[in-house]
Write a structure and sequence with these properties.
The structure is a single chain. The protein is mainly alpha-helical and about 70 residues long. The chain has one domain (about 10-69). It has helices at about 10-15, 20-35, 40-45, 60-69. The longest helix has 12 residues, at about 20-35. The radius of gyration is 11 Å and the shape is globular.
Length: about 70
């Protein structure tokens, strides 16, 4: 059973940036926010205690890894 990401309700990516594309946002929420949060680049940064870049997409794991170095 998947648990919803603890950051979903306050994630500016979904609450601001994706408001104009609800279908794409819904697909990403299913995959990352309600699925595998460990695969979400935004969640990786947040869990590390760093400021999440506004323009970081959930699928940009390689970019997140660079930011975590």
């Amino acid at each position: 059973m998947n648990i919803e990401c603890e950051y979903l309700q306050t994630c500016p990516f979904f609450n601001d940036k994706m408001a104009s594309v609800p279908t794409a946002a819904a697909i990403m929420k299913i995959k990352y926010c309600k699925g595998n949060q460990d695969a979400c680049a935004r969640c990786m940064i947040k869990k590390a205690g760093l400021q999440v870049p506004d323009d970081l997409f959930p699928h940009q794991v390689d970019r997140a890894r660079q930011l975590l170095k």
